Amino acid sequence: VQLVESGGGMVQPGGSLRLSCAASGFTFSSSAMRWYRQPPGKEREFVAVISTNGEGTNYKDSVKGRFTVSRDNAKNTLYLQMNSLKPEDTALYYCATINGHRGQGTQVTVSS
After folding, report:
1. For residue 108, which of 45, 56, 52, 39 has the smallest C-alpha distance?
2. Tell me: the pLDDT tens digits for 23-69?
3. Phi, psi (5° rounding) for residue 62?
């Protein structure tokens, strides 16, 4: 199993970023997927989950209405569109399978 995140960076409050997670080594279309984040000095937080066909999603309360998780099973890729970013969204973001495999993560920093 290999998961490689990309798309992080530094952005001002109110800005947007789109994270991607390229998956390989397993049947991506058969696996529900999650996004997590770990803010500096804090524990890991659940961010979002998406079902195998993309029709079912769920989010951490604080990101509802701002973040959108999606997937392209033909490209074996998971996405996280993040809008209206806030400083408290600053964290290392990573994708994970339901079985617990995870990538190395991509850093998101929201600062003016």
Report:
1. 39
2. 999 999 999 999 999 999 999 999 999 999 999 999 999 999 999 99
3. -70, -10
**How far, in Å, are 13, 23, 65 from residue 4 at the CA level?**
26, 7, 26
Q: State the virtual CA torsion across 58, 70, 66, 2 in degrees, nearest 10.
A: 90
DSSP per-residue string spanning 7-21:
--EEE-TT--EEEEE
**Token pair listed for 41:** 């000095």
Amino acid at 66: R
Sorted by sequence, the CB contacts under 8 Å of residue 59 that are 6+ apart come out as: 47, 48, 67, 69
In sequence order, which residues have a C-beta less than 8 Å from that of residue 67 and are 6 or more positions away?
Answer: 47, 48, 59, 80, 81, 82, 83
Per-residue pLDDT, 97: 96
Residue identified by tokens 């049947």 is: 27
